[in-house]
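Students often ask why we bother predicting the structure of a whole assembly rather than each chain alone. The short answer is interfaces. A chain on its own may look different once its partners are present, and contacts between molecules only exist in the joint model. In this exercise we take two input lines together and write out one structure for the complete complex. Read the inputs first and try to guess which parts will touch.
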Amino acid sequence: MNLRGMAAIYRSEMARTRRTLLQSIVSPVLSTSLYFVVFGSAIGSRITEVAGISYGAFIVPGLIMLMLLTQSVSNASFGIFFPRFSGSIYELLSAPVSYMEIVMGYVGAAASKSILLGLIILGTAGLFVPLQIAHPFWMLLFLVLTAFTFSLLGFIIGIWAEGFDRLQLVPLLVITPLTFLGGTFYSIDMLPPFWQGVTLLNPVVYLVSGFRWSFYGVGDVSLAASLAVVVAFLAVSLAVVSWMFRSGYRLKP
Amino acid sequence: MPSAISVTGLSKTYASGFQALTGVNLDVKAGEIFALLGPNGAGKTTLISVICGLVNPTSGAVLVDGHDNIRDYRAARARIGLVPQELTNEAFETVWNSVSFSRGLFGKAPDPAHIERVLRSLALWEKRNNRLITLSGGMKRRVLIAKALSHEPKILFLDEPTAGVDVELRREMWEVVRGLRESGVTIILTTHYIEEAEEMADRIGVIQRGEIILVEDKQTLMRSLGRKQLTLELLEPLVSLPNALSDYPLTLSDDGHELVYRYDTQQEHTGIAGMLEELRKAGIQFKDLHTEQSSLEDIFVSLVRENP
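Now the answer. The structure tokens for the assembled complex follow.
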């Protein structure tokens, strides 16, 4: 194991976060706060409770997930795309580091940042609405697992993308719609039966549901189903990354 | 003692179908400066990229200091420092952080004193807190060298190290490279500037169309393929050569003012003395003479022409 190599990647990625503090931390927190003001306070005051929870509190887990997914994907994808774009990836590929160490360095840094962001947003949310966390251990587990899984997805996109436009494509056309339709702002039993069935095909539903369960003890699907989906998604992402490095896909001609 | 680099039967065909390397065999001795010459697109960079692990070979094997560069990639890569041709870097990092990052990436414990030595030897110390994006091209090139030296490699690859670098800096870099060789580092450089190979290299390899067409000691190469010519500036122009001189490989310039005598430096008797004697007998006087030796450049050009 080249732990020093892994640590060097991790540190340099975290240094990038510090350099771009405004865009990487402040702006997601600000936009989440705006959601609270608009949905939680302005519109939420006219919506009755959902599953016995005030609407403002109900959307907190969903909003954290929304930020977690989009930030994990965009941060991790940019982290590996930029060296490819600038050409400085030569150093990474010629260094005595295994692909798993490279992945752990980049994905670990992206996930750390997302987790930090999630916790900051959680703290911010506490200023707007009364919060309770029924199962703190599960809450953290979902936070960490989701951050890693979607950072891994971002890493895959960063290797796949051949230009900045493609880098934006997946977050914009896939992640954002799935999150908005994934029960962030509503409980899926508010939908007509047909759309409830369709919604269950959306993996984000399981993430939001599991995460919300850890707060309020209620979810749209069972905890086991939520956990299974996150772990399955993580496994698939790991398999794809492993294939990418072994085949040299877009990394080594 | 194993070779620093040992390449056997190395071929590379890119996905596009372009065959960049065709059965390359090459041994680079430990501690030497090896110059790889070849026209554009001959396969220099591909060869280096395969050795350093940036490109997967189609077939063949590479041993770095006795370690297979795929099966035992950690040991192989830890020994290599690579300075790429393109000026690529992290742009927003500082010189110090970028060079320190390289050392960490190669699994070495932090050693600020070593980084300082490297930066000073490359005249980068004053710029250590500058962001890479603010540096000039020559400075960026030096940062790439510093990054490659940060982890104390045994083998250093320099891919076109002095492309686009001014004369003074080029001299300075040659000094650095010589210093490295003295400390026992094996150096492999590719270059367009034949002058550079002529000045620096111990041995020279010529690559063309993915094949190594020649590997030779520089001195031997210059001697065996080198030709000399003696030019005599005549006092009075000649209309034609006297018969007595017809046995000598002499050519008369069009205006009749110059006589050029070509000879092989390898020959025991160059025939110069006899030829001059004949000139004197024929009453041909000259006011000046000079000799020219063919440079590595001429040798290179003729080699590449002969092997189309």
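Check your guess against this: The radius of gyration of chain B is 25 Å.
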